[in-house]
Design brief:
By secondary structure, the chain is mainly alpha-helical. The protein has helices at residues 3-9, 12-15, 17-52, 67-80, 85-110, 123-147, 165-174, 181-207, 214-243, 247-286. It has a single domain (13-107, 123-263), classed as Up-down Bundle (3 helical TM bundles of succinate and fumarate reductases). It has ten helices and no strands. Helix 7 packs across helix 9 (214-243) and helix 8 (181-207) runs antiparallel to helix 9. The chain is elongated. It binds protoporphyrin IX containing FE (HEM). Protoporphyrin IX containing FE binds at residues 32, 36, 39, 43, 76, 79-80, 89, 93, 140, 143-144, 147-148, 160, 162, 169, 186, 190, 193, 235, 238-239, 242. Protoporphyrin IX containing FE binds next to helix 3, helix 4, helix 5, helix 6 and helix 8.
């Protein structure tokens, strides 16, 4: 068979292998990997909110015990208030995840990763990178379709309500048909994804030719381990926080949060209206 015919027979990914390999590596870090930092920080606010924001919601009648629920509610409302959120979701999250997962599965199935370049990578990490990738695809699909698109998988995954954020997330992790097994599923999948990201960060430096020597790969490995451990801490705090939160008690705090928020808004706009009234009366008197 001539070379021309052989070239014609290879598919698009094979013909542009080096470019796609780099784009695949990049997309795992920006935007997907970077997204993990704010995402897990927001989710773990159910725990750190209690410690850091104990007095922040006192004017709304919420004490330190309810500050985790109030902080998470506040964070979710901030995200939902971002302009053009749906475009950010589609172009910064869903499409890059689709690309990264699709190409990743293709590489994993065809063995197109250049193993010889990972000569120093332990075998088990090579295997776990692929396994965590497959598990991650399943998890992210179920996670986003349930929490964002409202699929509840026949009662397995109760859906999320942005105006009752903590209580609905606690219900999602505890009160579906699998009970607390859903929280266990989350813990396994999220830790797998954290490993996938931290190990991917390490291999990406090889892909991009940044860490060439064994010593450089070792040093970068220490940084990646630290990144992975920090994210794992945030992941454990998130799952533990929602798996142990009483949804009924959280709902009471959310109701208090929403009612006082509404009252404060009404008072603020009444204040603005009366200030505007005084100003126009003053202007009238001046004329
Ligand atoms: C500790 C475990 C996690 C919890 C409790 C959690 C919680 C949530 C919540 C509540 C939402 C809906 C956000 C909203 O509508 O405001 C969401 C969306 C999402 N999560 Fe997670 N998450 C976790 C882990 C992860 C991981 C490891 C990933 C991997 C990348 C991930 C990816 C996403 C994506 C892509 C969305 C859709 C975001 C959007 O479209 O706005 N999550 N998550």
């Amino acid at each position: 068979m001539s070379t021309a015919v052989a070239a014609k027979k290879t598919n698009f990914i094979d013909r542009h292998y080096h470019l796609i390999r780099r784009l695949h590596s990049l997309s795992g870090i920006v935007p997907i990997g970077l997204f993990l930092f704010p995402h897990l920080t927001t989710n773990s606010s159910i725990m750190w909110g209690k410690a850091l924001n104990g007095a922040k919601f006192a004017d709304r009648g919420i004490d330190a015990a309810g500050a985790g629920v109030a902080t998470f509610q506040h964070e979710v409302e901030f995200i939902h208030g971002l302009p053009a959120l749906i475009f950010i979701e589609i172009f910064v999250l869903w499409l890059p995840i689709l690309f990264h997962a699709g190409v990743g599965v293709y590489f994993a199935k065809t063995g197109r990763f250049n193993v010889s370049r990972y000569a120093y990578q332990d075998n088990w990490r090579y295997v776990w990178q692929r396994l965590s990738g497959y598990l991650g695809v399943l998890f992210i699909f179920m996670h986003v379709s349930s929490l964002r698109w409202g699929w509840n998988y026949g009662g397995l995954m109760p859906t999320f309500h942005a105006d009752a954020a903590a209580s609905s997330l606690a219900t999602h992790l505890q009160k579906g048909s699998a009970g607390l097994l859903m929280a266990a599923f989350y813990l396994v999948c999220v830790l797998a994804l954290v490993f996938h990201f931290a190990n991917g960060l390490w291999t990406a430096a090889i892909t991009w030719g940044v860490t060439v020597s064994v010593a450089a790969q070792k040093r970068w490995g220490q940084v990646c381990t630290l990144v992975g451990l920090s994210l794992a801490g945030a992941a454990i705090a998130s799952v533990f926080g929602f798996a142990t939160l009483d949804p009924a008690k959280a709902q009471v705090i959310e109701k208090q949060y929403q009612e006082t928020k509404l009252r404060n808004e009404v008072q603020a706009s009444a204040g603005q209206a009366s200030a505007a009234g005084i100003e126009s009366a003053h202007e009238g008197a001046m004329r």
